[in-house]
């Protein structure tokens, strides 16, 4: 196991404080707490207005490490899939407007009532092919995010780094990987696939796996409160050419209930001490 | 995707009714409901007495499709690991006494407080090497069970079929795979690894993945109530030489609360209609 280099700058993924703060609060909060990066979700971005948000983020001097999220391609019928593709085209335009380093893709699970996993994967593949021309034209990197296998049914049939890299290989230029330690830490094939990801990591996300984990989606921990060896994964990312920082993204009912002005200093501390 | 052949006989994994029935109840219940197989957990086996249980299972004419479970090798110190290995030796003796087709291995997660996943995997590897001589001498197949990655921290660092087959390759004769559809259905590499498993499947377990899933351990569904394409996975198993039936193993707070004499007919029906 290699040693990690110094960690790059912190970025706040807005879902971390979603119950308390809109995007304007997040931008001001990052400035107030000295957090140099931000990664908005589309709901808060649209609520604020994309142009307005772009201006305020730029004025605050924040680095936009990503836009969350595109994807969610599978649907029960062709009209639904076409609508999802259109929505992804809007997401690409939004990512371009705010100068996001990438558009993070949570690719979607099984259509309601379906047990056809190969079919859902094919819908993801087709959706991605459909949007790549717009993404390339806009200069927006499509960052495929492998999601933990426990989300396969309802959030993402893209479950491993290896599977995501296979798709990057197929899709070609303009694609990359959004690597969240929460989703990949367990993977017995991780070291090999991280070498394969060389030059293709487009985002690095942190949080932690709690023991016990009481919810398959909303029980993530602050970095350091769980069992993930974050520096070990960061070292692999850095050896594969990642020179950026770490975006902290914590979906947690527990932390959502807290005052973000108390949470952000904790995120900064953990970023410096355990990531 | 190939078509599955006829399904083999049903076996009841005793954990499915653990809140209501001891092993004697399970044996009598299987006979009463016409379920030809049983797979006890060690707690109920020991509570009844191993010799006594072996006799009663034999008298009832039940096929013992497995003993659950060996494994749980990692521990914080050498004494703990040695104790775990000794416990596995007792499990091998018990599996031999009841004539179990295999000893199912749930290999164990991280030692308490540890973030050293490679280290925990090494403890599993060492533990398995340590017990193979006794297993071979007793003629007990060691069935490695890849567990869903959401159990990596606290139940099993063996997370994929591919990783389990790598270990089988290394351990050699006397090893096999316990394949539970719940643990492997999401795996993008499943078809390839199932081909690799040819001749090495030692057990086939059914249940279902519910949407939503409200607990990482105790919220499994009856076959047919979730999203797993069980016949597709069974077809792959049969193409890889599996000629046995299906052991139904449902860890579920919901189903544990029900009268087993109501649950067993449902299991039979689902076994025949959706597995």
From TrEMBL, chains A, B:
Q: Which GO terms describe its molecular function?
A: isomerase activity
| Chain segments annotated as coiled-coil in the UniProt record | none
Q: Which Pfam families match?
A: AP_endonuc_2 (PF01261)
Q: Tell me the domain of life.
A: Bacteria
Protein source organism: Roseomonas elaeocarpi
PANTHER family for this protein: HYDROXYPYRUVATE ISOMERASE, XYLOSE ISOMERASE
Start and end residues of each Xylose isomerase-like TIM barrel domain: 30-259
Q: Which Gene3D superfamilies does this entry report, sorted A to Z?
A: Divalent-metal-dependent TIM barrel enzymes
Give the record's keywords alphabetically. Answer: Isomerase
For this entry, the protein name equals Sugar phosphate isomerase/epimerase family protein
**InterPro entries recorded:** IolE/XylAMocC-like, Xyl_isomerase-like_sf, Xyl_isomerase-like_TIM-brl
């Amino acid at each position: 196991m290699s040693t990690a280099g110094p960690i790059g700058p912190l970025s706040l993924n807005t879902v971390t404080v979603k119950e308390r703060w809109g995007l304007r609060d997040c931008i001001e909060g990052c400035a107030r707490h000295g957090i140099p990066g931000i990664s908005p979700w589309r709901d808060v971005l649209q609520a604020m207005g994309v142009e307005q948000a772009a201006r305020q983020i730029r004025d605050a001097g924040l680095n936009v490490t990503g836009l969350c999220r595109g994807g969610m391609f599978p649907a029960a019928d062709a009209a639904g899939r076409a609508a999802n593709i259109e929505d992804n085209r809007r997401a690409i335009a939004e990512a371009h407007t705010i100068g996001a380093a990438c558009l993070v893709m949570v690719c979607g699970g099984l259509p309601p009532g379906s047990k056809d996993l190969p079919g859902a994967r094919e819908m993801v593949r087709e959706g991605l092919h459909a949007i790549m021309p717009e993404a390339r034209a806009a200069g927006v990197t499509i960052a495929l995010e492998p999601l933990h296998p426990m989300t396969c049914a309802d959030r993402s049939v893209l479950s491993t780094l290896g599977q995501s890299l296979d798709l990057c290989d197929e899709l070609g230029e303009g694609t990359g990987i959004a690597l969240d330690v929460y989703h990949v830490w367990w993977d017995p094939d991780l070291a090999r696939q991280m070498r394969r990801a060389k030059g293709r990591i487009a985002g690095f996300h942190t949080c932690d796996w709690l023991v016990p984990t009481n919810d398959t989606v909303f029980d993530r921990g602050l970095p350091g409160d769980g069992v993930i060896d974050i520096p070990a994964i960061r070292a692999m990312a850095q050896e594969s050419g990642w020179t950026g920082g770490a975006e902290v993204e914590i979906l947690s009912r527990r932390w959502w209930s807290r005052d973000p002005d108390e949470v952000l200093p904790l995120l900064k501390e953990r970023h410096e001490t355990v990531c």
